[in-house]
Specification:
Blueprint: E1 2-7, H1 21-46, H2 49-75, H3 90-117, H4 125-146, H5 154-183, H6 188-215, H7 225-233, E2 240-248, E3 254-261, H8 269-283, E4 287-293
Parallel strand pairs: 3-4
Antiparallel strand pairs: 1-4, 2-3
Length: 308
């Protein structure tokens, strides 16, 4: 005989972003889209690969902001007959798409930067400096708008980090423009674009790794399966556990399922409520399903670690 118990440490409301985040996304998208147009035009006029590369990167960031915003809206939708968890996983897909967009930008910037190394051409350094300085302001303001919630949500963190990196990249372009103005070393422009690509690649790696892991139902970063397993085994009356799985329902919610063998009998709802509370407090696991198994001589089909 077995019994399923669905643990609810808190009421499961639909995940949502802070109230001001909708306005933050709208403002950030408008600011960056306008800046992309300005930066691309002046990049062409100034013959600056660094500005054009940064404009392309910023365009990717605009798309990333749009995707992240859409994912947050979709994640608020209630569960349905076809999507019993709702569309919360859209936030994970958004983070993955953002990472892929950045990788595509790195490839394009690198190819053009290498091509320009052989023939840098004349660069309007003053224009480069002015436009890139404006980029620091635009990206810095957008990052500030998106900062709330970015610590605990990989989807928001992806959008936030894009803006932070863009501000730093724009600062690098300003410095490069200043050096070119006084030295005449136009080869620094394509070199700067390659440095920009390297910075983007380095900053994207963590986002790509985490989003791919979440997409493949990996144990969320910061959680160790062995620690959760040991915690469950220490519970009074639990002699063994199996079929333990931990994965991400969304970029902010963690799910656990497990079978607990308790030969002494069912522990009661109070025990399960306390266990749910501790899973939330210790491991930030807010959606747990525990199956209680009483008869140790009745084999469970899922007892083997190799069976899912």
């Amino acid at each position: 005989m077995t019994q399923h118990d669905h643990l609810h440490p808190h009421s499961h409301t639909q995940p949502h972003a802070p109230r001001n985040l909708t306005a933050a996304f709208a403002a950030g998208i408008a600011l960056n889209l306008g800046f992309v147009v300005v930066e691309a035009i002046y990049g062409l006029l100034a013959n600056s690969m660094a500005l054009i590369a940064d404009a392309g990167h910023n365009l990717g960031d605009v798309l990333g902001l749009v995707i992240a915003w859409i994912a947050i809206v979709l994640a608020r939708r209630a569960p349905s007959q076809n999507y019993t968890y709702g569309l919360r996983r859209a936030t994970i897909l958004a983070a993955l798409v953002n990472a892929m967009l950045l990788l595509a930008a790195v490839g394009a910037i690198t190819i053009e930067g290498i091509r320009r190394l052989s023939a840098p051409g004349e660069i309007a350094s003053v224009t480069v400096i002015i436009v890139a300085a404006a980029g620091i302001v635009v990206n810095g303001v957008t990052a500030w708008l998106l900062a709330p919630g970015s610590k605990d949500d990989i989807n928001l963190r992806g959008a936030f980090l894009h803006m932070v990196y863009d501000a730093l990249v724009s600062l690098g372009v300003v410095i490069t423009g200043g050096v070119m103005l006084f030295s005449g070393w136009t080869w620094l422009d394509p070199v700067a674009s390659l440095v920009i690509a390297a910075i983007i690649l380095a900053g994207t790696w963590g986002l790509l790794r985490d989003s791919v892991g979440m997409s493949l139902d990996a144990v969320p970063a910061g959680l160790k399966l062995d620690e959760v397993s040991a915690f469950l085994r220490r519970q009074p009356g639990v002699t063994a556990i199996h079929d333990l799985h931990i994965w991400s329902m969304s970029t902010t919610e963690t799910v656990l399922t497990c079978h607990c063998l308790m030969p002494g009998g069912h522990p009661g709802d109070e025990f399960l409520a306390q266990l749910a509370h501790e899973l939330q407090e210790r491991f930030k696991i807010g959606h747990a399903t525990i199956q209680i198994e009483i008869h140790e001589h009745i084999p469970c089909a899922l007892e083997s670690d190799h069976v899912i």
